[in-house]
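Good morning,

Attaching, inline, the backbone tokens for the sequence recovery test we're adding to the shared suite. The designed sequence is right after.
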């Protein structure tokens, strides 16, 4: 494969790419002929595509992985990148720093020199917490509906945090609490975003009963079943559903009536958040409802904060809402109903203020610029203590 199609816009880096049976490893050389090396086990995709590729706008990890590598380059380290699911890679050089997101830490750490700094880059709650949380939701659904659905967000067990010296974590104090048992230093890094919207002035008297559920795979994991059961009891409230519901046949079939035959529920399916269609939805929506059972820091919540939607979310979503939303305590159908009615009955002026505060918070905390700043501070701190 020619290197002509490879675009890596690093001002201070030379680039070489080694190809084996596939894109097994990407090597970035620091301009200052650095002798120190970082191994980053995350994703190689961002180093193989141009900055205008849609992948940079479908998930935050594409740009974030790029920025992590850039930060270490700017600190004078060469950087090798492998995919997180590359389970055949064996180190052939001395690495001073090893960064992994989940499944390679336990395997590769024993192969590295003793003084290599091992950093777990945490993008979700601890695997045992997440797996148990999803299975609990599925069990509760089985009791309500008499149907067993498949788990879709189960994470393979890993001793990554046990092998790491420290960790960066995308999430808030709740996310951190699922790793607290390890006693390892946890450095909070705010999730970035794939899109920023201008602040939309809305007529909350017209849209106060309009809500959005936005999510990816794992409908039960992310609480869509609870939301559908709640809105089925609230015919005067309107729900937009944006997510790949049709890709989960068991869920799709169980909730077919609610998804497609309800007057107050519109199932939009997967949607491009940069599209005019999505813009029209968020301009005519008051709030996000998102009772997920486990996240690192939910990207869908961050997207909706940037759209000025008032968050009605679970604590497990990993996003701080600082008084401009509602934090669900137990994520029950009854609590979802009462929270939505409570929010929708607030004065127009208060809804306007909450919407603006949500947008302001996202613009301050959840941007690519702030991610880069916070990660750079982390690298500064960790290197100063070496």
């Amino acid at each position: 494969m020619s290197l002509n199609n490879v675009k890596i816009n690093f001002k201070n880096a030379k680039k070489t790419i080694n190809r084996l049976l596939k894109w097994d490893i990407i090597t970035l050389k620091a301009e200052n002929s650095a002798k120190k090396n970082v191994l980053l086990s995350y994703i190689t995709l961002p180093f193989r595509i141009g900055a205008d590729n849609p992948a940079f706008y479908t998930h935050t990890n594409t740009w974030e992985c790029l920025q992590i590598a850039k930060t270490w380059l700017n600190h004078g380290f060469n950087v090798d990148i492998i995919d997180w699911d590359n389970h055949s890679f064996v180190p052939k050089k001395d690495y001073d720093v090893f960064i992994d997101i989940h499944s390679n830490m336990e395997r590769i750490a024993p192969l590295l020199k003793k003084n290599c700094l091992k950093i777990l880059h945490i993008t979700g709650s601890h695997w045992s917490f997440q797996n148990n949380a999803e299975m609990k939701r599925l069990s509760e659904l089985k009791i309500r509906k008499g149907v067993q659905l498949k788990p879709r967000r189960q994470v393979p067990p890993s001793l990554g945090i046990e092998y790491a010296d420290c960790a960066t974590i995308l999430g808030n104090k709740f996310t951190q609490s699922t790793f607290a048992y390890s006693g390892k230093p946890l450095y909070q890094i705010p999730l970035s975003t794939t899109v920023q919207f201008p602040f939309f002035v809305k007529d909350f008297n017209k849209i106060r009963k309009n809500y959005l559920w936005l999510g990816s795979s794992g409908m039960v994991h992310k609480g869509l079943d609870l939301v559908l059961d709640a809105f089925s009891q609230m015919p005067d409230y309107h729900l937009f559903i944006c997510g790949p519901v049709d890709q989960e046949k068991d869920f799709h079939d169980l909730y077919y009536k609610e998804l497609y035959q309800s007057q107050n529920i519109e199932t939009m399916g997967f949607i491009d958040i940069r599209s005019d269609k999505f813009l029209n939805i968020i301009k005519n929506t008051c709030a996000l409802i998102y009772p997920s059972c486990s996240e690192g820091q939910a990207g869908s919540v961050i997207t909706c904060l940037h759209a000025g939607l008032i968050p009605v979310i679970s604590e497990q979503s990993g996003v701080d809402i600082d008084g401009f939303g509602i934090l669900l305590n137990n994520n029950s159908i009854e609590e979802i109903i009462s929270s939505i009615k409570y929010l929708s009955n607030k004065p127009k002026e208060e809804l306007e203020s909450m919407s603006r505060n949500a947008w302001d918070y996202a613009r301050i905390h959840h941007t690519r610029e702030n991610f880069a700043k916070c990660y750079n501070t982390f690298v500064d701190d960790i290197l100063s203590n070496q």
